[in-house]
Write a structure and sequence with these properties.
alpha/beta, Rossmann fold, 2 domains, 6-stranded parallel sheet, 10 helices, 12 strands, globular, binds 2'-monophosphoadenosine-5'-diphosphate
Length: about 280
């Protein structure tokens, strides 16, 4: 029987996940399909009951359901529980088990540029849900420092307080971060500032950027945000959000099917949909 996979979110129209996973199913000759479903917050519980009833094999959840899904599941893995967010659910013999592949997806993408982050000084910009997944996952991998710069400094402090893994961290105001920017080897922009259509926005000034730094932005639309463009012009290496998106999808696909998918193929497929070219990434 055909296996069904899905992504639940609101809105969901812009999601690239269906294109990415359906291409993999056909490439690996699997009788399976992946479908997007727009589910309002108040309907999430009913949607999960429906997915149980039809015996769905697995699904992704995206904004705004990543935290509220947790009490509706039968089990949640340790990292996802500490992050407080699930983006991937696997039907394990009738039990819906939640995982978080966002932070690990980011880390996998990062490792294509930096094989190890130990001894690195990292600055995370933002303190929302995406920052939380990335910060906790990086903290587990023990870089020398991970500081957090955020518009609301209290939220950065809360994130540092909540982290279950020991790492040296300070909370900074956004306008203060630029004053110390040359200290950091890796800068990770995790907010939606600069995303299409507001492409002229940038979360902070980067006039003190270390030209040897790696600057990552989790946004992939546009492929080069204003922040990344300026970082590139200042001599830094840049990485857009495409790798994180593709690797979180690859990790989910692997959990569902046991197959480690061809990440390069996934990347080219998404790039084709975005109308970009590979070399925009570097
Ligand atoms: P997500 O789950 O996608 O990370 P979120 O939880 O709403 O989204 O977090 C959004 C992040 O973007 C936060 O760090 C937020 O800063 P605040 O904590 O001060 O709200 C940041 N952000 C959003 N709009 C911003 C803006 N105009 N300027 C600076 N930071 C902004």
């Amino acid at each position: 029987m055909k296996k069904l996979y899905a992504v639940l979110g609101d809105p969901i129209g812009q999601s690239m996940s269906p294109i990415m996973h359906n291409d993999l199913f056909s490439y690996y000759q699997m009788d399976a399909a992946y479908h997007p479903f727009q589910v309002k917050s108040e309907d999430l519980k009913a949607a999960i009951l429906g997915l149980r009833a039809i015996g769905i094999s697995g699904f992704n959840v995206t904004v705004p359901h990543k935290s509220t899904i947790i009490p509706l599941l039968d089990g949640v893995d340790e990292l996802a529980m500490s992050i407080g967010a699930v983006n991937t659910v696997v039907n394990e013999d009738g039990r819906f088990v939640g995982y978080n592949t966002d932070g690990l997806g980011f880390l996998k993408g990062l490792s294509t540029y930096l094989p190890s982050i130990s001894d690195r000084k990292v600055l995370v910009i933002g303190a929302g849900g995406a920052a939380r997944a990335i910060y906790f996952t990086l903290a587990y991998n023990k870089p020398q420092v991970i500081d957090i710069a955020n518009r609301t400094i209290e939220k950065a402090e809360e994130l540092i307080e909540a982290c279950p893994f020991e790492v040296s961290s300070r909370a900074l105001a956004l306008n203060d971060a630029n004053n110390h920017l040359e200290d950091y080897d890796v800068i990770i922009q995790t907010t939606m500032i600069g995303m299409s259509p507001k492409v002229l926005e940038q979360p902070l000034m980067i006039t003190n950027l270390n030209p040897h730094a790696l600057v990552c932005d989790i946004i992939y639309n546009p492929l080069e945000t204003k922040l990344l463009k300026e970082a590139r012009q200042r001599g830094a290496t840049t990485q857009n959000g495409l790798d994180m998106f593709v690797y979180q999808g690859a990790l989910a696909f692997e959990k569902w099917t046991g197959i480690t998918p061809d990440v390069q193929r996934m990347k080219e497929n998404v790039l084709k949909q975005l109308g970009g070219t590979q070399n925009v990434n570097r």
